[in-house]
Amino acid sequence: MKNHRKRILQLPDLLAKKSFFLFGPRATGKSTLIRNQLTSDSTVVIDLLAMRVYREFLARPEQLEDYVRSHVKGEKPTVVIDEIQKIPELLNEVHRLIEAHDWKFLLTGSSARSLKTKGVNLLAGRAWTAELFPLCHPEILDADLSKRLRFGALPAVYDSENPDEELDAYVSTYLKEEIMSEGLARNLVAFSDFLKIAGLSQSKVINMNKLAKNLGVSQPTIRSYFQILQDTFIGTMLPPWDLSKKRKSISHAKFYMFDLGVVHAMTGTRALDRNSTLFGDAFESYLICEIMAYISYRRLKDPLFFWRTVSDDEVDLIVGQKAAFEFKATDKIQSEDLEGLKKLAEEQIIPSLFIVSQDKFETTTNGIRRLYWKTFLSELWADNLLAV
User: Fold this and answer.
1) Farthest CA pair distance, the chain
2) Which CATH number fits domain 11-131: 3.40.50.300, 1.20.1630.10, 3.40.50.150, 3.90.180.10?
3) What angle in degrees, to the nearest 10, is found between the helix axes of 208-215 and 188-200?
4) Does the pTM exceed 0.90?
5) 233 contacts 258 by C-beta, under 8 angstroms
6) List of E strands, 62-206
7) Which residues in the chain come in under a pLDDT of 50?
8) HSE on the CB side for 78, CA within 13 Å?
9) Rounded to whole angstroms, how far apart are CA atoms 242 and 26?
10) Across-strand partners of 354?
11) Which one, of 274, 254, 238, lies nearest residue 357 by Cα?
């Protein structure tokens, strides 16, 4: 089962249209996806994590065409370069081969930092971008909410008999292979301390000044640390929605890590009490990450926001100008749980309003639809909520 889950992302379908950058955090399954889906004899995989291959192409990136022709037959190969950020100079050759021969490339990476540096060739639109996430709802056959919130959904973790060990090793590997080896953070000790703070900041509004003081570093340093998490696809900043005409919105962003198991490994959390605030935060984060994955896999372009006013009216997620969602871990919705959505409805901007919870009583009241969390996930992935 471990390596045979059917993933939503289908690489042959992507590559039939265009060359692609495929980004995503380590251990989301990029290499497994390539092995399982790109099995044609006309496919060649260049793994830059293999030291011999890395050294060979670092010394002579211009050999790419000859290397490919010596490994596959035919005039239209599919070329996979795994961890392209290791040798960004290869992109010049990729650009040339797309232009000269119309070859298809899949360029994978777990860090975009090196690709953002000045002068790196990003192919000027000749390759589109896709992202691979941890396992999402259609890829997980069971519906064990407690397991999903506690251990996240990295494939190797979710299928492991020792998920805590896998998660601890993941955080250690992330520090060693992404941060230290790439020299992304000058002070690895301070960055390690920051990771715990970042985990504790999950689903919270970020106050950079306060976090900098708590960690004993400058505000620019804190900002650079959060940028590292975003560049390595570990975290996402969710900006505030500011289209309200009736109420003043706050200006700080919220922060979400890509996987709850990794969050708990960073913070040392070993248990989730179903009645705790931590469980409620995890419930919200889980469902927001599902929406992020859905929008990416369906290749929708709707921006995501949250809404909080200076008087503390709040809605957890706003998707473009399509829909707004409030997530509550409660098994019985109370009238006060609807207040943020009611205030948002007064703006008359967002047409579809939802509250998602563990309450199995589903109804629509004052234009707000109540959904049980399993129903929400089924309808989301059936394209009934956001596809139009």
Assistant:
1) 68
2) 3.40.50.300
3) 130
4) yes
5) yes
6) 78-82, 104-109, 127-131
7) 1-3
8) 19
9) 34
10) 325, 369
11) 274
